[in-house]
Amino acid sequence: MTKKRFVDPFFPNRPVDDPNRFSGRETQVDEVIDSLFQTANDNPKHTIITGDRGMGKSSLLLQTKLLATGDNRLAEKLRIDLGLEAFNYIVAWHDANYDQSAEHIVFGLLRDLESSIKRFFNKFTLELDVYGLKVSGRDERERSIADLVNYFCEMLEKSYKSVTENKKNGIILFIDELDRVKPDSGIATFFKLCTEKLNREGMKKISFFCAGITGAVQKLEEDHGSIFRTFRDVPIPRLTIDETSRILISGFDKAEFTFDANVLNCVYDLAVGFPEPVHILGSEMLSVCEAENLTEKDFENAKIKVVTDVRRNKLRSLLQKAGYGKYQQILEAMAAFDGAYVPLDYISKYIGYDQNQFSTNISNLIDRDTITRVDKGVYTFVDPLLKEYIRNFGVLNIKKNDEDDEEGQIYMDV
């Protein structure tokens, strides 16, 4: 019998852009809606969405943009009161990157804002001053943060008048991947000075919405200690078993597959609350299933396919990025542990070092986004599939006497 072709209902490689496919996160959605409502009522709430890498921050930020521009589907789906019939903001979006300064971000936002306003108001132009905001080359002209704030607010004032006169709710400025911006870029000082100036000058229907990995705001604090008072933090926790199940059930239903109940628990236990593995496993289970009822055998086959084929190169790259020597020993120990959350005592006994002999390695693995701390003395993989990869292929060559910890050769067929 020929297997029926279907549209894959799972999407691990991109943010969720369809409100009908966005699952869970009711508390966080309610908080961003409240920020939009407060800003519309002259009480701007500058907001940053934080969470571990792959936790769905960009998806929530994108859903916030849809809500801000009048798409009520998510609010209706979750039965959350908007406080208004619909939001009607002008929005601008910028994706931050490692090599960008505060000037790059300012110009990116203004350029997108100008395009957004032109779609509503003909012949509108901000007359952007490009000469001081070149985006390449070492000879980029530097401006003080204070000058940059004055310039940015001057441009916003031109926009603000048109926006408010045409009965819009205000302006929302979105910045994704804020954690990529270097703390010494001056961006935190820019946010602090800019939000204060906007408030002083009565432009209270403007707010920033940002997203970045957990710790992004803390890193920005190195630039300006008051950044915590500038942003409302909306942390995204890991998915609960109920949220994980809803994602899977919704996808299986769309593809018209039935499933054994234990399949949901299998995926939750492996994904440990990360959305991406849930989508990957859901997608591959549908791919490997030869009937139209998903079983635990399909889960096992999908898991093997993911680590040996679909995500093999990515997982190998993560392992190489982690470092050699003790780094690989730590990861080998964590992969050998039966549960997802690995105690430091177990790692210490497994690799034969006192905790103070590898504490720096643990910190570096966290900085390299290989593992994350879930509690005092307890760690887990940032990508849960890396554990399965190590169990299948092993780690890189472990040199127990290698003090450099950054050298090594391939230990097994990776």
Automatic annotation (TrEMBL):
Pfam families: AAA_16. Residues 21-188 form the Orc1-like AAA ATPase domain. PANTHER family: ATPASE DOMAIN-CONTAINING PROTEIN, DNA-BINDING PROTEIN-RELATED. This is AAA family ATPase.
